[in-house]
Amino acid sequence: MANQHQVKAKKYLGQHFLEDETIAQDIADSLSFKGYDHVLEIGPGMGVLTKYLLKKDTTLHIIEIDTESVDYLKNNYLNLANRIIEKDFLKYDLNLVFEDKPYAIIGNFPYNISSQILFKTLELRHQIPEFSGMFQKEVAMRICSKEGSKVYGILSVLTQAFYDAEYLFTVPPTVFNPPPKVDSGVLFLKRKENYDLPCDEKLFFRVVKTGFQQRRKTLRNSLKTFNLSDNLKANIIFGQRPEQLSVAQFIELTSLIENDEN
Ligand code: SAH
């Protein structure tokens, strides 16, 4: 169907083009398309996912930083028309397009910025009920992991505070051109019904990030900079290491710190 040269893969943009149509279809099918009328695809490249998303009962928007890919999409997907945003997802103010409407995010992401894509999604969570994306396999598994696991960390806690995270399937390097060096994994996030935390949200982010900076230390040690009262630090929760705390316990910990009388 292509009526233009294929896009030449650029390393600095993390371009690995998926060539397996069944996998593309499976990723497109991973969203429910319920509860929102708009979907944003990040980094469509030559549109392998895009063409399946265009068949869905939704208004599809795409954001792509690469001019050559944008030209390709404009020539090959005429019905995308003015819903192509030629910008950097990390820098663009999406409210210019979506105002206060809800939308889902989907994509086969450039791995070098996939964590930043997730952090931006968490910031925008009030508008994003669903998120589906291909990450480096280890990153996808880390995001879904539970307390006690070696890979449980900042991304796991912050994501699972607001979303239920599900690892869908693994994708081998061989189905990409050029093949990446690592396995990939597709992750699905569904926002929790109640995603307002019962504690100060900014403080929660700070506690989680600071706690995991020294993951082998007890929280009593790693949270020294919070200047907590001795009384509070005597609480057994401070004798734990961050990787032992569930999301609910991190919320509880944040509430304790918030109410500390120091
Ligand atoms: N989804 C396509 C391409 C995946 S490669 C496929 O599966 O074949 C990742 C894509 O993200 C590339 O097209 C790259 O140009 C794009 N990209 C990289 N950084 C971006 C950014 N900051 N904002 C938007 N798109 C970006």
UniProtKB/TrEMBL annotation:
GO terms for cellular component: cytosol. Transmembrane segments: none annotated. It is found in: Cytoplasm. Keywords: Cytoplasm, Methyltransferase, RNA-binding, rRNA processing, S-adenosyl-L-methionine, Transferase. Its EC number is 2.1.1.182. GO terms for molecular function: 16S rRNA (adenine(1518)-N(6)/adenine(1519)-N(6))-dimethyltransferase activity; RNA binding. S-adenosyl-L-methionine binds at residues 16, 18, 43, 64, 88, 108. The keyword Transferase applies. PROSITE patterns: SAM_RNA_A_N6_MT. SMART domains: rADc. Residues 23-193 form the Ribosomal RNA adenine methylase transferase N-terminal domain. It catalyses: adenosine(1518)/adenosine(1519) in 16S rRNA + 4 S-adenosyl-L-methionine = N(6)-dimethyladenosine(1518)/N(6)-dimethyladenosine(1519) in 16S rRNA + 4 S-adenosyl-L-homocysteine + 4 H(+). Belongs to the class I-like SAM-binding methyltransferase superfamily. rRNA adenine N(6)-methyltransferase family. RsmA subfamily. Specifically dimethylates two adjacent adenosines (A1518 and A1519) in the loop of a conserved hairpin near the 3'-end of 16S rRNA in the 30S particle. May play a critical role in biogenesis of 30S subunits. NCBIfam families: ksgA. This is Ribosomal RNA small subunit methyltransferase A. It comes from Winogradskyella thalassocola.
